Amino acid sequence: MARLRHGARRLTDGILRPAPVTVELDGEPLEAYPGESLATAMLAGGRRAFRATRSGAPRGPLCNMGVCFDCVVLVEGLGEARACMTAVHEGLRVHTGLQGDGAG
Amino acid sequence: MEQAEVAIVGAGPAGLAAAALLAEHGADVVVIDERPRAGGQIYRQPPESFGGEGLPPGRSYAAGRALLAAAGASGLRWQTRTLAWGLFEPQDAGPVPEGAAAAWVVALADDGGIRRLAARHVLICAGAYDLPVAFPGWTLPGVMTAGGVQAFVKSEKLLPGRRFVLAGAHPLLLTVADQLLHAGAELAAVVFAQPAPRLSEGAAVAMRLRGRLTPVLELVGPLRRLRRHKVPLLFSHLLRAAEGEGALEAVRVAPISPGWRFVPGAELRFACDTLAFGYGFVPSTELPRQAGCSHRWKPREGGWVTEHDDWMRTSRAGISVAGETTGIGGAEQAAEEGRLAALGLLRELARLDRGQAARAAAPVRRRLRRRRALSGLVQDRFEPVYGALGALADDATVVCRCEEVTAGTVRSALATHPHLGTADAVKLLTRVGMGPCQGRFCMLTVASLIAEATGRELAEVGAFHARPPAKPLPLWQLATAWSDPS
Asked: Closest residue of A to B249, CA-based?
């Protein structure tokens, strides 16, 4: 894949994650671990921009504690949700409205 | 409608300590927290699905483990993954069941919709969040708060980038740097606005601590490890800008005066994909402000803090506060305040008489005095220079991230309307603070810009008016109406 990946990676030393599941991000599969946040799964998958503002500026997670609302994505069945406060589970379908995933 | 004697908002150190003590004396308590697990930000636990121990082993999390264990064993009612978004007087919150001795109705929201909780007392332990600073480029993906980066590492077990710069003015930066190094991250630089610490200063602090050196030693270890890993450590430098095409690629830092103004000297540029900025913390006061509790501007303690009496009661009957909401003081101080608030409530609920409460409170007050002396030392050295931070925003810098209002727009509004003197007035004119974060991330910058333009004090400029909901709710949630049986 010609996707630009930045350096985010999951730590593995001494950590017992459950079996991974697949969620759908902008129509593409994304590997994720149940219980981790959607922001974690997106960053680990190489995403940097999570949304674009009305002026088109890219934005990503800033506070990672649910107060800044800059990591908001559209989650099917839930509506607009903060990626940092949304736990991942199998079958989650997410839309950012950004084309060319990872370009940001 | 669900009822409780005490509704505690926030399951961090203050809320946990209060909850355990209240439950120990038989009070009927509901603990509300937005996250799936208790602990707050400082003791934020990994997801339950990750198995193993919640908090990492070691001395620094021992207090957190003890608080979680005590609260976990005490038979409290927990409402996690639940947002407390409003405090209403009973007559304003729909029909209240007859005979309910409710002073306040706490409006809640979760994945099922919105609900109400009628409580005789509300104890707000809402914590704090990283002090937002609007510098050029701070909206780029890859720019995060130090607390946010730390939460990714310690709770999500994720390194959110490869090459990090940490910059700001708070000792938390050293802790985060240490945790990042331990996790195998590359650190491009750690940058402090303060001048390099002097040995004489360390000795003076040690004198005032009267030999209790743990707080000093907690910083020495990380400093030593940064040196061993040859991480550039800069003092008297301030973050000037973040740069990148579509996402963060580098940051620029420059030398400053003791008043944090840029001085001539070499600007340094560090390539990085993640910036953690940490200048301090802001108390979360949305709920007590919404309820009309009185607040005071205390810049050394993080800005606007909720005022309270010596039993942690606010100016509104039935609402108490504890922890960072009352001013930034750290986890141990928060826990002691939580205990004091709980004793005050037990006294009001007549579960302890006055004498019993006073006797039980005496050792708590003693410990609290020591904690406040210690946090005062931290505040002395690490108080942010708000005016200088506000001046970092050039005219093109977005100040209100939600509504994309620039510092230039705010400055020209102030120039055109010289009568504008409060945060609320500038909000009405420019839309700053009207987006989903509800002003949490622009309020202090806007206040600094107003102070700069008008010569008023930050205390006079005031805070944005806080209204329900304390955080935005999707319409479908509000459309469920009260889902609780009344």
From this structure: A6
Yes or no: say if B272 and B162 are a contact pair by the CB < 8 Å rule: no
pLDDT of residue B337 exceeding 60, the answer is: yes
What is the pairing mode between strands B274-278 and B143-145?
parallel
CA nearest to A59 within chain B = B141
Q: How far apart are CA B216 and CA B218, in angstroms?
A: 5
As beta bridge partners, residue A52 has A58
* Distance (Å) from the alpha carbon of A36 to chain B's nearest alpha carbon: 6
B440–A68 C-beta distance less than 8 A: yes
Helix (H, G, I), strand (E, B) or coil at B153: helix
In angstroms, rounded to a whole number, what is the distance separating the alpha carbons of residues B40 and B122?
A: 18
Q: What is the pTM of this model?
A: 0.95
Residue A11 to residue B47, Cβ atoms within 8 A: no
Q: What residues in A contact B246, CB-CB < 8 Å?
A: 48-49, 58, 103-104
The strand pairing partners of A25, in sequence order, are A28, A94
Q: What are residue A95's DSSP bridge partners?
A: A74
Q: Which residue of B has its CA nearest to A9?
A: B159
- Predicted confidence band of residue B61 (pLDDT cuts 50, 70, 90): confident
pLDDT in tens, A2-13: 344 468 999 998
CA distance A15 to chain B (A): 7
Cβ–Cβ contact B41 with A under 8 A: yes
The shortest C-alpha distance from A20 to chain B (Å) reads 11
Interval B2-44: pLDDT, tens: 999 999 999 999 999 999 999 999 999 999 999 999 999 999 9
Which neighbouring-strand residues pair with B99? none
| Contact between residue B468 and residue B107 where contact means Cβ atoms under 8 Å apart | yes
